[in-house]
Design brief:
Helices cover 87% and strands 0% of the residues. The chain is mostly helical.
Length: 452
Amino acid sequence: MGIIGVYNSTITFIKIGAGLGVSQSAVRDVSEANGCGNRYRFSRTITLTNKIVWFTAILGLTCTVVLSPMLSQWGFGNKAYTLAFVILSLAVAADIFVDNQLAILKGMRQLRSLAKASIIGSIASLVTGVPLFYFFGEKGIVPSIIISAVAAMCVSMFYVRKISYDKMSMSFKDIFREGKSMLTMGVSLMLVSFTAMAFNYIIITYIRSNGGLDTIGVYTAGSTIITSYFGIVINAMTTDYYPRISAINKDDVKLQEAMNQQSEVGLMLVFPLAILFLFLSRLVLSILYTDDFFGAVEYTDFAMLGTVITICSGNMTMILLAKQKPKIFLTSVICQRLFMLVVFLVSFSFWGLRGLGIAYFLQGVVDLIVAVVIMKRFYNICFSKKVLYNLMMILVSCSLAIWIRRMDGLIVYVLGILLLLWSFYYSNRYLKNSMNINLFEFIKAKMDHNNK
């Protein structure tokens, strides 16, 4: 897990830099072109995006090969993994290609195709990864990453090719001229993501130097659960949210309404999941990993609180992207990350994995405060009292769940089950009364539809 953590953080780091943020800026351009009803403009935008994709993919491959000795030294403290990073350059190129292809599906709000592409790609990773790890152990890590990336690339290409548009020939001069706005916006977004990844990369390197690969493995297990598994809800909502607010980016009243609604739904969906995970965190870790990873609970308990806050702060800051104000976003992110980097490193030095969890929670608090100040100052956009009340209520409930789990005896299960049932009841009642969404009926309808 430690080796995988270093590989994946490095791949993501280069992918973000070489990708030039096109996977993010393309969503807006494709969404606008698709909504204007002009087939020529739509076809031109899709063709332009596909052309830029090839350039960024090759750039990522080249950067990984050239930097491979340094990546090995930074990640592992020696150059023994240089050849591995050279081979992983293929995965970097494939990942960049996938992100940009999925951006086209997001821009067109082809949510069903997007979901299928993601699911099939994940299944392919599972089917190929498990046998490689089982038979080859650590030697199977690099082939598994490459095969997974290539499989995801093939699947994404299959669904994008289903899109009906007129393929056009474009010269290099045309690509540069017409892609300038996409790249300008993309580079700004890339710098934001690049800053975040540099932030994570420094933390991983620091943990490796002061705690070893085993500590990285435990930290990777905990952060994967927090950022990936709970990120499913956040990413699923963002896929629809960003194109929606892009269409109304000049109407601050509608933006505030959409932001508050998005935050309410996100909080209600995550609430019971967070309570359930906090009670069963050790069981989840033993199923997904082994008992040796129980130390990750020290991180996930506090990081879960930060994740809940991120639901609200993320919805607010995304408005800056919809308004094409990346400079404000970039400045705030860089200042926050520089400050929080010190907090993370100091916290780990004193409290280990628990310190990283506390720092993650504090990062969520800082992100929220900065977002609220910026949006109130420039656009008079703010959260409703209902959102703030629900946020505080969920944070208190999650803290209560952690406290109950640490008790002894039968009372743990009694209080835990009561709190979990209440979280499900509250979320379902709130969605039904405030937004006319019956969560249980919705799930049942989907299951019945799938059975048919």
